[in-house]
């Protein structure tokens, strides 16, 4: 069974305030003179389900003890985005359906029993939030814990692992420190807790700070 965990992308897709909104125009219309329709798309790479690259939140990163320019989306290895994955529902939904400002280790510890897959997706709301005015981020300490246990990728059903007003971006920089990958803006409303196969490959955008993905989960055989 396949679960599509990507939100729809259209002109109503919400983005960070001030970021480029989705636009689509017809460049070549199907007609007697033209055998095809071809559209031109304008969008932020953070539209819909997407994978941030280190370039999004840092100018440099340390790899193998060496400082180098932060990697762009097309430079990242694909292995973290493909393979065994666990969906964990954070505990403590409030009356608004969220888990507070940041989800802590305590709220997800029930779902982190060994053997732990290298990919963890955290459901932070009853209904996935694509809104920059109301969502739950992740505590950096939670990411530190997951990194110590060998997790390569973390995903959330919210626009960001940091709060909308954060200038320091502590959770993004925890990801950078541990060389972890992240997926944001997923939809986990209909996915039960448990283990799946994740497929969420970023495009090979050689200069971009992020990439949209078509994220899916497959039930394990």
Number of helices: 3
How much is the radius of gyration in Å?
A: 18 Å
User: How much of the sequence is in beta strands?
Assistant: 25-35%
User: What strand order characterises the main sheet?
Assistant: 1-15-13-7-9-11-12-4-14
Helicity range: under 10%
What's the total number of strands? 15
Question: How are the elements arranged and paired?
Answer:
Elements: E1 2-4, E2 23-28, E3 38-42, E4 50-52, E5 60-63, E6 66-69, E7 82-89, E8 102-103, H1 105-108, E9 119-123, E10 137-138, H2 140-148, E11 153-156, H3 170-178, E12 181-184, E13 194-199, E14 210-212, E15 216-219
Parallel strand pairs: 7-9, 8-10, 9-11, 11-12
Antiparallel strand pairs: 1-15, 2-3, 4-12, 4-14, 5-6, 7-13, 13-15
Task: Describe the protein in words.
With 221 residues, the protein is mostly beta strands. The protein is 10% helix and 29% strand. The chain has helices at residues 105-108, 140-148, 170-178; strands at 2-4, 23-28, 38-42, 50-52, 60-63, 66-69, 82-89, 102-103, 119-123, 137-138, 153-156, 181-184, 194-199, 210-212, 216-219. The strands form 4 sheets. It has a 9-stranded mixed beta sheet with strand order 1-15-13-7-9-11-12-4-14, with no helix packed on it. It has a two-stranded antiparallel ribbon with strand order 2-3. A hairpin with a 2-residue loop joins strand 5 and strand 6 (66-69). The longest helix is centred in the middle third of the chain and has 9 residues, at 140-148. 36% of the residues are buried.
Keywords:
single chain; 221 residues; mainly beta; nine-stranded mixed β-sheet; two-stranded antiparallel ribbon; 29% strand
């Amino acid at each position: 069974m396949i679960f599509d965990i990507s939100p729809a992308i259209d002109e109503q897709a919400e983005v960070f305030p001030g970021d480029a909104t989705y636009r689509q125009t017809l460049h070549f219309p199907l007609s007697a003179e033209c055998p095809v329709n071809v559209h031109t798309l304008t969008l932020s790479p953070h539209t819909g389900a997407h994978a941030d690259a280190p370039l999004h939140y840092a100018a440099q990163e340390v790899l193998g003890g060496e400082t180098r320019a932060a990697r762009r989306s097309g430079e990242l290895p694909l292995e973290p985005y493909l393979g065994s994955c666990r969906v964990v529902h954070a505990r403590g939904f409030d009356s608004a359906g969220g888990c507070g400002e940041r989800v802590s280790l305590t709220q997800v510890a029930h779902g982190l029993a060994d053997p732990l897959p290298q990919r963890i997706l955290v459901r932070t709301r009853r209904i996935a939030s694509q809104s920059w005015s109301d969502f739950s981020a992740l505590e950096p300490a939670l990411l530190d814990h997951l990194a110590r246990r060998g997790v390569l990728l973390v995903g959330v059903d919210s626009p960001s692992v940091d709060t909308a007003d954060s200038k320091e971006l502590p959770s993004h920089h925890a990801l950078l420190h541990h060389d972890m990958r992240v997926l944001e803006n997923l939809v986990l409303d209909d996915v039960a807790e448990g283990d799946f196969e994740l497929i969420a490959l970023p495009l090979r955008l050689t200069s971009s700070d992020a990439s949209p993905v078509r994220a899916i989960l497959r039930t394990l055989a």
